[in-house]
Amino acid sequence: MTSYGIREIAREAGCNEQTVRWYEEQGLLPAVGRTAGGQRRYDERHRKQLGFLRHARELGFSLETIRELLTLYSTPEESCAAADGIATRHLADVRHKIARLQALEEELVRMIAECAGGRIAECRVIETLSDHSHGHCLAQDHLTAGHQVAEQIPQ
Questions:
Q1: How many CA atoms lie within 13 A of 110 on its CB side?
Q2: How many CB atoms lie within 10 A of CB 16?
Q3: For residue range 69-123, what is the model confidence (pLDDT) as tens digits?
Q4: Residues 6+ away with beta carbon under 8 Å from 94
Q5: Contact 32, 24 (CB under 8 A)
Q6: Cα 94 to the chain's mean position, in Å?
Q7: 92 and 64 fall within a common domain
């Protein structure tokens, strides 16, 4: 059976050794064997699961959601409906974040475009930031502005 040191497995996964140790401490990686000298030795199962973890993190899944996905990952004969549901919810969250960012981008572009580049006393950027409640800003609440835009994004 092939075994890997922590440096090898971390490098392959694109993370550092501390991240691998942290995943172990959090129970996201199975218990690892050690050499007589106390060095961690990982097998193919660890390598695959670490790759799974890293890819899920790159796609923005939370650690709580990754725990759910790992449970599903360990039961390959089960229906994938639960995994589809998790991915669908995550997609909705991503779309909401994109919509919020688009609303923020729109507001920033407008603020900058309306700034004449003169003195601070007449600066539209400063005016908009300092007087949010008097119609200088397109969105009254940037935290919910994304909800409105998200509804317009095709599913």
A1: 13
A2: 13
A3: 999 998 989 999 999 999 999 999 999 999 999 999 998 898 888 887 788 887 8
A4: 60
A5: yes
A6: 9
A7: no
**Does 32 fall in a domain?**
yes
Domain of residue 26, CATH code: 1.10.1660.10
Q: Which two tokens stand for residue 67?
A: 């725990």
Indicate the DSSP class of residue 59.
Answer: T
The tokens describing 26, both together, are 């959090």
Decide which of 30, 52, 73 is a domain's last residue. 73
Average pLDDT over residues 38-53: 94
Q: 57 falls in which pLDDT band (50, 70, 90)?
A: very high
At residue 31, what are phi and psi to the nearest 5 degrees?
Answer: -55, 145
Boundary (domain end) residue, out of 21, 43, 73: 73
State whether 62 and 95 are in the same domain: no
Give the helix ranges, DSSP H, for 26-141.
Answer: 44-58, 63-73, 81-114, 124-130
> Could you give the number of structural domains in the chain?
2
**Residue-range definition of the domain harbouring residue 21:** 6-73
Q: What percent of the chain lies above the pLDDT cut of 90? A: 61
The model carries a pTM of 0.71
